[in-house]
Amino acid sequence: MFNRFKRYDRPSRINSGELITLPQPILDSKTSIEAALQERRSIRDYTPESLSISEISQLLWAAQGITRPGGYRTAPSAGALYPLEVFLVSGQVDNLPAGVYRYKPEEHGLNLVLTGDILEELSAAALGQDAIRNAPAAIVITGIFERTMVKYGNRGIQYVHMEVGGAAENIYLQAESLDLGTVFIGAFHDDQVSQVLNLDDQEEPLCIMPVGKPRR
Length: 216
What we know:
alpha+beta; seven-stranded antiparallel sheet; 9 strands
């Protein structure tokens, strides 16, 4: 059970080459795309329940999962250059220690980047928003603009921002089909989020999406 008042030791940077394989995504559900669109809302208040690794698998696959040979993904990308990177910030996920994980679309798995629960620090970097602090997990999407700009020049900046919107909407709709709640958060200090996640210099944070079971 997730305890919103429990916090772990401050995370430490690690270099883990070990891949945590996620459950294969389910490609069918009882929720139609029309129903998900109708019911989708921004949810900021979550119950204390933990998330399952299967739920995490579905959300990450919806964001940037591979859908067919050639590396094509669930969200469209200008020139199929895929500048987005997806991180899972785990606080309380069943069978997954608290930490920061980078999603690896090609393997549909996770690489551990930081150990420990950083949701409190991530919330502070996002103007103290409770939705992040009290969620069992959050998804952070970053962008490596050079991947797109190498082909499209400065116009590629716009393309990257367009792309994060598509990926985020996929997360929204997948969350709805799983009876979960999320919200797109863009109000944060870029440099502070980068520091909390210990991002590489070429990566820029684009959005934070806390995820949890909605409080009815």
